[in-house]
Amino acid sequence: MNSLKGKVAVVAGATRGAGRAIAVMLGKAGATVYVTGRSVRGKPSALGRPETIEETAELVNQQGGNGIAVKVDHTLEQEVKVLFERIEMEQGKLDILVNDVWGGDPLTNWDQPFWEHNLHNGLKIQTQAVHSHIITSHYAIPLMIKQREGLVVEITDGVNYDYRGNLYYSLAKISAIHLAEAMAHDLEKHQITAVAVTPGFLRSEAMLDHFGVTEENWKEATKIEPHFIASESPYYIAKGIAALSSDRGIFQKTGQILSSWELAKEYDFTDTDGTKPDWGDYFNKTFNGKAKE
């Protein structure tokens, strides 16, 4: 339970969804977790969701970790720079970085080809989900290099370079994979690990709201979307990343594309309901490994 005691983590984009769950599970393992995002009490982000980084920090504390909420827009270099200056001053090091900044769902139109898609929204997806990750890693990595160890996790969608059904969405998610691969190459001599990790069909707060269900009765949504039966809670991937962070042999995985379902098999954990969802197997059997039409 205290495998990460003494470790310092940053979860960028920890307001809700996978980011929130990852922060909580790292805290449960004993880590000090800086939870960042744009939504704070009394001032939500442009997404207009009710979740806040303060709530996430409180959940981290409830699990025995040390949650520290810091309002940061990771597309703004100065704000990111100040964040890591603060961490260096307060902690003197950084052990784990999780790049989970996204915010692209309301910007993505799945029914339009890229030349008809709103260009501003498409480019904004790249700013929020790619540029922000680069900026964050740029300022985080020097803290890891000083101690010649660390873990960088790029949260993505999918385990390959296949088209995801929308040019802008696809470009962002594939870029996260390549960021992990490229960083792994540059960081190899410093013994710092970089990996990309994907969840399956994620039951985020927004997805539950979309279907009008809760985590308690989520299966009701399968009446609307049958594939939701293979979905997973945000804590599934979170448990996987906590396990990765605690693995002393993690460097052997540097540069790899990992998934929640494969990590569950390797580290033998279950989702919050005791099941082991396998989106990869479900997807391959249902769609024959091809993108959904």
Shape: globular
Strand order of the largest sheet: 3-2-1-4-5-6-7
The first-to-last residue Cα distance is: 43 Å
CATH superfamily: NAD(P)-binding Rossmann-like Domain
Q: Figure out the total of helices.
A: 9
CATH architecture classification name? 3-Layer(aba) Sandwich
Share of helix among residues? 40-55%
What letter string, H or E per element, gives the SSE order? Answer: EHEHEHEHEHEHHEHH
What is the makeup of the main sheet? 7 strands, parallel
Briefly note the structural class of the backbone.
Answer: alpha/beta
**Total domain modules:** 1
CATH topology: Rossmann fold
Average pLDDT over all residues = 95
The tally of strands reads: 7
- Name of the top-level CATH class: Alpha Beta
Strand content: 5-15%
Low-confidence stretches: none
Radius of gyration: 18 Å
Protein name: NAD(P)-dependent dehydrogenase, short-chain alcohol dehydrogenase family
Q: Could you characterize what this model shows?
A:
With 293 residues, the chain is an alpha/beta fold. The protein has a single domain (8-287), classed as Rossmann fold (3-Layer(aba) Sandwich), CATH 3.40.50.720. The chain contains 9 helices and 7 strands, in the order E-H-E-H-E-H-E-H-E-H-E-H-H-E-H-H. A 7-stranded parallel β-sheet has the order 3-2-1-4-5-6-7, sandwiched between helices. Helix 3 (77-90) runs parallel beside helix 4, helix 4 packs parallel to helix 5 and helix 7 crosses helix 8 (260-267).
